[in-house]
Amino acid sequence: MHRAIDGSIKTCTIRRMPTGKWFACFSVETNTALPPRRDGPAVGIDVGLQSFATRSTGEKIDNPRFFRSDEKGLARVQRKHPKAQKGSPERKNALKVVQRVHARIADHRTDFINQVSCDLVDRFSILAFEDLDIKNMVLNHNLAKSISDVAWGMLVTAAQDRTAYAGSEVVLVDPRNTSQVCSGCGIIVQIELSDRVHSVPGCGLSILSMDRDINAALNILKFGRQFLRQIDGSPGL
Protein backbone atom coordinates (compact mmCIF):
# COMPACT_ATOMS: atom_id res chain seq x y z
CA MET A 1 0.00 0.00 0.00
CA HIS A 2 1.23 3.50 -0.81
CA ARG A 3 0.26 4.80 2.66
CA ALA A 4 -0.93 3.48 6.03
CA ILE A 5 -4.67 3.13 6.60
CA ASP A 6 -5.93 5.51 9.28
CA GLY A 7 -9.25 4.43 10.80
CA SER A 8 -11.58 1.44 10.89
CA ILE A 9 -11.94 -0.31 7.53
CA LYS A 10 -15.59 -0.64 6.47
CA THR A 11 -15.40 -1.76 2.82
CA CYS A 12 -12.78 -2.78 0.29
CA THR A 13 -13.36 -2.57 -3.45
CA ILE A 14 -11.06 -4.52 -5.77
CA ARG A 15 -10.87 -3.20 -9.31
CA ARG A 16 -9.05 -4.51 -12.35
CA MET A 17 -8.23 -1.92 -14.98
CA PRO A 18 -8.39 -2.70 -18.74
CA THR A 19 -4.59 -2.43 -18.84
CA GLY A 20 -4.28 -5.32 -16.34
CA LYS A 21 -3.47 -3.25 -13.24
CA TRP A 22 -5.27 -4.04 -9.98
CA PHE A 23 -6.37 -1.50 -7.36
CA ALA A 24 -7.79 -1.95 -3.85
CA CYS A 25 -9.89 0.97 -2.58
CA PHE A 26 -10.63 1.05 1.17
CA SER A 27 -13.47 2.95 2.80
CA VAL A 28 -12.67 3.79 6.43
CA GLU A 29 -14.38 5.44 9.39
CA THR A 30 -12.35 7.89 11.47
CA ASN A 31 -12.95 10.18 14.41
CA THR A 32 -10.89 12.98 12.89
CA ALA A 33 -12.70 16.31 13.21
CA LEU A 34 -12.68 18.60 10.19
CA PRO A 35 -10.68 21.78 10.80
CA PRO A 36 -12.46 25.16 11.03
CA ARG A 37 -12.27 27.54 8.09
CA ARG A 38 -8.86 29.13 8.07
CA ASP A 39 -8.15 32.79 7.41
CA GLY A 40 -6.55 33.49 4.08
CA PRO A 41 -6.99 35.05 0.67
CA ALA A 42 -9.86 34.18 -1.68
CA VAL A 43 -9.57 33.59 -5.41
CA GLY A 44 -11.92 33.44 -8.38
CA ILE A 45 -11.07 30.87 -11.05
CA ASP A 46 -12.30 31.08 -14.63
CA VAL A 47 -11.81 27.84 -16.57
CA GLY A 48 -11.49 27.84 -20.34
CA LEU A 49 -10.11 26.17 -23.43
CA GLN A 50 -7.40 28.61 -24.50
CA SER A 51 -6.01 28.66 -20.94
CA PHE A 52 -6.95 25.83 -18.59
CA ALA A 53 -7.72 28.32 -15.82
CA THR A 54 -7.29 32.01 -15.07
CA ARG A 55 -7.12 33.26 -11.48
CA SER A 56 -8.43 36.59 -10.28
CA THR A 57 -4.83 37.35 -9.27
CA GLY A 58 -4.01 37.56 -12.99
CA GLU A 59 -2.15 34.24 -13.18
CA LYS A 60 -2.96 31.83 -15.99
CA ILE A 61 -2.55 28.05 -16.12
CA ASP A 62 -1.76 26.67 -19.55
CA ASN A 63 -4.05 24.06 -21.07
CA PRO A 64 -1.90 20.90 -21.49
CA ARG A 65 -4.36 19.30 -23.98
CA PHE A 66 -3.38 15.74 -23.08
CA PHE A 67 -5.80 14.05 -25.47
CA ARG A 68 -4.97 16.39 -28.34
CA SER A 69 -1.24 15.78 -27.92
CA ASP A 70 -1.71 12.00 -28.13
CA GLU A 71 -4.59 12.03 -30.61
CA LYS A 72 -2.54 11.09 -33.68
CA GLY A 73 -0.76 8.26 -31.88
CA LEU A 74 -4.08 6.98 -30.53
CA ALA A 75 -5.65 7.04 -33.99
CA ARG A 76 -2.70 5.09 -35.36
CA VAL A 77 -3.02 2.23 -32.87
CA GLN A 78 -6.81 2.26 -33.15
CA ARG A 79 -6.56 1.60 -36.88
CA LYS A 80 -4.55 -1.57 -36.25
CA HIS A 81 -7.13 -3.13 -33.94
CA PRO A 82 -10.06 -3.69 -36.37
CA LYS A 83 -7.68 -4.93 -39.09
CA ALA A 84 -6.60 -7.92 -37.01
CA GLN A 85 -8.61 -11.12 -37.23
CA LYS A 86 -11.32 -11.52 -34.58
CA GLY A 87 -10.26 -13.80 -31.75
CA SER A 88 -6.61 -13.74 -32.77
CA PRO A 89 -3.73 -12.89 -30.39
CA GLU A 90 -2.86 -9.97 -32.66
CA ARG A 91 -6.30 -8.42 -32.12
CA LYS A 92 -6.06 -8.84 -28.34
CA ASN A 93 -2.59 -7.28 -28.30
CA ALA A 94 -3.78 -4.39 -30.47
CA LEU A 95 -6.64 -3.75 -28.04
CA LYS A 96 -4.22 -3.70 -25.10
CA VAL A 97 -2.10 -1.09 -26.85
CA VAL A 98 -5.17 1.12 -27.36
CA GLN A 99 -6.13 0.71 -23.70
CA ARG A 100 -2.62 1.62 -22.55
CA VAL A 101 -2.69 4.84 -24.58
CA HIS A 102 -6.08 5.79 -23.07
CA ALA A 103 -4.76 4.97 -19.58
CA ARG A 104 -1.63 7.10 -20.14
CA ILE A 105 -3.75 10.08 -21.20
CA ALA A 106 -6.03 9.64 -18.18
CA ASP A 107 -3.08 9.30 -15.79
CA HIS A 108 -1.43 12.48 -17.10
CA ARG A 109 -4.70 14.38 -16.78
CA THR A 110 -5.33 13.15 -13.24
CA ASP A 111 -1.78 14.02 -12.13
CA PHE A 112 -2.15 17.51 -13.60
CA ILE A 113 -5.51 18.07 -11.88
CA ASN A 114 -4.08 16.91 -8.55
CA GLN A 115 -1.13 19.29 -8.82
CA VAL A 116 -3.32 22.29 -9.71
CA SER A 117 -5.92 21.58 -7.01
CA CYS A 118 -3.21 21.09 -4.34
CA ASP A 119 -1.60 24.41 -5.25
CA LEU A 120 -4.94 26.24 -5.11
CA VAL A 121 -5.96 24.77 -1.75
CA ASP A 122 -2.51 25.47 -0.25
CA ARG A 123 -2.56 29.12 -1.33
CA PHE A 124 -6.20 30.15 -0.87
CA SER A 125 -8.86 29.66 1.79
CA ILE A 126 -11.84 30.37 -0.53
CA LEU A 127 -11.98 29.03 -4.09
CA ALA A 128 -14.81 30.35 -6.28
CA PHE A 129 -15.69 28.49 -9.49
CA GLU A 130 -18.50 28.76 -12.02
CA ASP A 131 -21.22 26.14 -11.57
CA LEU A 132 -20.99 24.91 -15.16
CA ASP A 133 -23.44 22.45 -16.73
CA ILE A 134 -20.74 20.43 -18.49
CA LYS A 135 -23.14 17.69 -19.66
CA ASN A 136 -25.01 20.22 -21.78
CA MET A 137 -21.83 21.95 -22.92
CA VAL A 138 -20.43 18.75 -24.47
CA LEU A 139 -23.55 18.53 -26.68
CA ASN A 140 -21.79 21.14 -28.83
CA HIS A 141 -20.05 18.77 -31.25
CA ASN A 142 -17.51 21.43 -32.24
CA LEU A 143 -16.22 21.75 -28.66
CA ALA A 144 -17.14 18.40 -27.07
CA LYS A 145 -13.72 16.80 -27.51
CA SER A 146 -11.85 19.83 -26.18
CA ILE A 147 -14.20 20.26 -23.21
CA SER A 148 -13.89 16.58 -22.27
CA ASP A 149 -10.10 16.78 -22.57
CA VAL A 150 -9.75 19.82 -20.31
CA ALA A 151 -11.66 18.15 -17.42
CA TRP A 152 -13.06 21.19 -15.59
CA GLY A 153 -15.33 19.00 -13.47
CA MET A 154 -12.35 16.98 -12.24
CA LEU A 155 -10.68 20.17 -11.00
CA VAL A 156 -13.73 21.29 -9.02
CA THR A 157 -14.24 17.81 -7.52
CA ALA A 158 -10.56 17.49 -6.57
CA ALA A 159 -10.60 20.96 -4.98
CA GLN A 160 -13.77 20.13 -3.01
CA ASP A 161 -12.22 16.92 -1.70
CA ARG A 162 -9.10 18.72 -0.51
CA THR A 163 -10.74 21.80 0.98
CA ALA A 164 -12.81 19.65 3.36
CA TYR A 165 -9.60 18.65 5.17
CA ALA A 166 -7.67 21.89 4.74
CA GLY A 167 -9.95 24.39 6.46
CA SER A 168 -10.83 26.04 3.15
CA GLU A 169 -13.97 26.09 1.01
CA VAL A 170 -15.14 25.82 -2.60
CA VAL A 171 -17.97 28.12 -3.71
CA LEU A 172 -19.91 27.55 -6.96
CA VAL A 173 -21.49 30.64 -8.54
CA ASP A 174 -23.97 31.20 -11.35
CA PRO A 175 -21.95 31.39 -14.59
CA ARG A 176 -24.33 33.79 -16.35
CA ASN A 177 -22.64 36.96 -17.60
CA THR A 178 -19.39 36.41 -15.71
CA SER A 179 -17.48 37.23 -18.91
CA GLN A 180 -19.68 40.13 -19.99
CA VAL A 181 -20.17 42.02 -16.72
CA CYS A 182 -17.49 44.65 -16.19
CA SER A 183 -15.70 43.85 -12.94
CA GLY A 184 -14.99 47.57 -12.50
CA CYS A 185 -18.37 49.27 -12.99
CA GLY A 186 -20.85 46.38 -13.32
CA ILE A 187 -22.07 47.27 -16.82
CA ILE A 188 -22.91 44.33 -19.11
CA VAL A 189 -20.91 44.51 -22.34
CA GLN A 190 -21.95 42.23 -25.21
CA ILE A 191 -18.77 40.57 -26.48
CA GLU A 192 -18.21 37.57 -28.73
CA LEU A 193 -16.27 34.46 -27.74
CA SER A 194 -13.52 35.52 -30.16
CA ASP A 195 -13.06 38.84 -28.36
CA ARG A 196 -10.18 38.34 -25.93
CA VAL A 197 -10.10 41.86 -24.45
CA HIS A 198 -12.76 43.37 -22.18
CA SER A 199 -13.11 47.13 -22.65
CA VAL A 200 -15.80 49.54 -21.37
CA PRO A 201 -15.87 53.17 -22.61
CA GLY A 202 -15.88 55.57 -19.70
CA CYS A 203 -14.67 52.96 -17.20
CA GLY A 204 -11.17 52.74 -15.79
CA LEU A 205 -10.84 49.22 -17.15
CA SER A 206 -11.08 50.54 -20.71
CA ILE A 207 -7.66 52.13 -20.25
CA LEU A 208 -6.20 48.84 -19.09
CA SER A 209 -7.91 46.77 -21.84
CA MET A 210 -8.28 43.91 -19.39
CA ASP A 211 -8.04 40.30 -20.54
CA ARG A 212 -11.59 38.90 -20.64
CA ASP A 213 -10.63 35.80 -18.63
CA ILE A 214 -9.17 37.91 -15.81
CA ASN A 215 -12.32 40.05 -15.85
CA ALA A 216 -14.43 36.88 -15.57
CA ALA A 217 -12.28 35.55 -12.70
CA LEU A 218 -12.73 38.83 -10.80
CA ASN A 219 -16.49 38.59 -11.28
CA ILE A 220 -16.49 34.97 -10.09
CA LEU A 221 -14.61 36.05 -6.96
CA LYS A 222 -17.07 38.89 -6.35
CA PHE A 223 -20.12 36.64 -6.80
CA GLY A 224 -18.53 34.03 -4.54
CA ARG A 225 -18.04 36.59 -1.78
CA GLN A 226 -21.63 37.78 -2.17
CA PHE A 227 -22.87 34.19 -1.84
CA LEU A 228 -20.87 33.61 1.35
CA ARG A 229 -22.14 36.85 2.89
CA GLN A 230 -25.71 35.68 2.25
CA ILE A 231 -25.01 32.26 3.79
CA ASP A 232 -23.02 33.07 6.91
CA GLY A 233 -22.60 36.82 7.00
CA SER A 234 -18.83 36.94 6.45
CA PRO A 235 -18.15 40.49 5.16
CA GLY A 236 -14.41 40.02 5.43
CA LEU A 237 -14.14 37.15 2.94
Question: How would you sum up this structure, described in words?
Answer:
- The protein is of the alpha/beta class and 237 residues long.
- The chain has one domain (8-30, 42-232).
- The protein has 7 helices and 9 strands.
- It has a 5-stranded mixed sheet with strand order 5-4-3-6-7. A two-stranded antiparallel sheet has the order 1-2.
- Strand 1 (8-16) and strand 2 (22-29) form a beta hairpin.
- Helix 1 (66-83) runs antiparallel to helix 2 (89-123).
- The longest helix has 35 residues, at 89-123.
- The radius of gyration is 22 Å and the shape is flat.
- The chain starts with 7 loop residues before the first strand and ends in a 5-residue tail after the last helix.
How would a crystallographer describe the biggest sheet? 5 strands, mixed
Structural class, from helix and strand content?
alpha/beta
Helix fraction by DSSP (H/I, runs of at least 4): 40-55%
Parts with pLDDT < 50 across at least 5 consecutive residues: none
Tally of individual helices? 7
The number of strands is: 9
- What general outline do the C-alpha atoms trace? flat
Calculate the terminal CA-CA distance, rounded to whole Å: 40 Å
Order of helices and strands: EEEEEHHEHHHEEHEH
Average pLDDT figure: 84
Number of domains: 1
Strand content: 15-25%
| Spatial arrangement of strands, main beta sheet | 5-4-3-6-7
> Compute the gyration radius: what is it?
22 Å
